[in-house]
Amino acid sequence: MPQPLSASDIDSKTDPTVSVQFDNETPKDQQVQDFYKTVDSLKTSLLTTIRSGVGPVARSMAVAKRVGPDFLFIANKHSRKFEDIENSKEALVTFQNSSTQDWVSITGTITVASNDDPRIKELYNPALSAWFGDLGDGVHTGKAEDPRMALIEVKSKYISYWNSKVTSLGFLKEVGLAALTGKVADTGIQRELLEKDIEAARQESS
Length: 206
Description:
Distance between the termini: 41 Å
Strand content: 25-35%
Largest sheet: 8 strands, antiparallel
Number of helices: 7
Mean pLDDT: 92
Low-confidence stretches: none
Helix content: 25-40%
Radius of gyration: 20 Å
């Protein structure tokens, strides 16, 4: 149900949507597991890098593998994203479920590995070749041995996410009622994982 706006929200300059929905009670290990469950159900992300003279640039990227709180992507090292990474290791990975409106935002640091990294062979699947093509020279084959294949690893350092707790119809009703009554819509749960939480999750998964 919509929650009343409090004077303390105004006095403390707090976003009432955050104060109503922010979860500080669920144990962090459970929050981590819920984060895993959310991102594992959303295989395609937006990977945002920082381009010199431009700013943030995003593109759709399928996650090759999640390793604890960190993410692996296979990409063509000839793409401009690698120029971005040379200039800035900062990255943002985002996910959104268009049905439930669940979303995840991950701030992290990028490291890159070339195609001699054994993880590429582990993660390679034949569908990837569709994005590389086969030159027919026996080298640029679009397979795991192709020198264009590179691994992008995003090491998370800050995570925020939101999970809906109402149905699509319930979402519309909640927002409509909040707008009519002057209250604040309460449609989901917002959480954050800080570096210490993420490092604990990384240790747990190793």
